[in-house]
Amino acid sequence: MSILTSTILEASQLKRLEEHKYSSHGKSIAEAVMQPFWNWAIEKVPRSIAPNTLTLSGLALNIVSSVLLMFYCPTGSEEAPGFVYIFCAVCLFIYQTLDALDGKQARRTNSSSPLGELFDHGCDAVSTVFVGIATSITLQLGAHPNEFFFMCFAGLLLFYTAHWQTYVSGTLRFGKFDVTETQLCIIGSLFISGLFGPGIWSYQIHGYRVSTFVLVFSTIMTLLTFYQSFSIIFGEGGSGRNGSTVAGTSVISPVIHFAAVLVLALMVMLRSPTQLFQNNCCLFILMFGIVSAKITNKLIVAHMTKSGMDFADTAFIGPLMLFLNQYLGLPCSDERVLLWAATIWCTVDLVRFCSIICLQISQYLGIYIFEITSKPPSSKKSSVSTSKKPVTRSSVKHK
Questions:
Q1: Does the residue 312 lie in any domain?
Q2: pTM of the complete model
Q3: CA atoms of 206 and 212, how far apart (whole Å)
């Protein structure tokens, strides 16, 4: 536990996080359709189960199913057995359901807290990485590496941008076609691949692959979503002083962090003498996706604590290992080994960051992470007592 004894958040940040109130606006089309099912499902969940347990369980299923698909299709162009696609579709549906139920469970058990909101959005950031890879594999985009790269990074950037505009405006906005609709489309695609084989996406219609039409539709919806987010970021201005972010920083500042991830990924991909990305699409995107998930989690924390974002981050050590090996001629000739090392580093770094943040908040608020009952007061926050009512946050509205 020694690696988790350090702290990340300062006392002032923890205080602002405790005072944070969740704010959202808008509902997607599918959300209204799914609500009756979610309301029925939540009644089947025992009240003794903590909301964060539901969140983490859904994420674990999503990761396991996506990793299984990556095992069968390491370059994203292979064809996995039909049951693998069906399994991924079922796991994604369960993840979506549990992601919708955790907020409802928090409300019905009076256990809502800022930790729950952070835990929910943090798991979503990680899930976005694996869902993007699974979708690209399903469409067999490994045979078209540039399309694989675009599909995955577009998804990562969409999620990052959604929280970027939240950091600016203080309110998370949902469009008519949003995460729920996207997930249902992906679930449908996985079922189609499982029933008819992924080769169906390579079928030609007037000289164009079916997957091309999917990409065109995805691009259009992506551009519309970007337009909505950027119109808020640059058009309406921030909710802070003089149009700044909630933390009083420049509304443009968050772009630096994701731009660094994207630029490093492009430079490593284009510079590689062994076609590292083309031969290892899944692992390559996984490594850079984990870095993106770490940066997105930092952005979510910055919003909830009304703080700025430090550019320097240990997550960049992974990509820099590959970058410096190529541009400075370092001795590692096997880029694939270096890619594995970078992936392991970034994964451990993300898990450590999230663990420390959750433990800090848990101790400060006097609550357990995976239990509903409160803890005794900690020495770091003497004002918390067992007689105090549970810390209340506005319930998390799930996508």
A1: yes
A2: 0.90
A3: 11
Cα separation, 123 vs 66, whole angstroms: 15
Task: Judge whether 121 counts as a catalytic residue.
Answer: yes
Is the residue at 390 inside a domain? no
Q: Which of 134, 115, 133 is nearest to 56 (CA)?
A: 115
User: What is the Cβ-side half-sphere exposure of residue 197, based on CA atoms within 13 angstroms?
Assistant: 6
Phi, psi of 236 (to 5 degrees): -75, -25
pLDDT of the residue at 328: 79
Spell out the residues 6+ positions from residue 57 whose beta carbon is closer than 8 angstroms to its own: 98
Q: Per the structure, how many domains does the chain have?
A: 1
pLDDT band for 237, please (50, 70, 90 cuts): confident
Contacts of residue 76, defined as CB under 8 A and 6 or more positions apart, other chains included, come to 133, 136, 137, 140, 141, 142, 143, 148, 281, 282
Residue 67 domain-assigned? yes
CB-CB neighbours of 107 under 10 Å: 15
Domain range for 136 is 2-365
Domain-located, residue 374: no
Percent over 90 (pLDDT), the chain: 68
What is the DSSP annotation of 241-263?
Answer: GGG--TTSS-TTTTHHHHHHHHH
Catalytic site residue from 20, 121, 144, 398: 121
- CATH code of the domain containing 170: 1.20.120.1760
What distance lies between CA 210 and its chain's CA centroid? 27
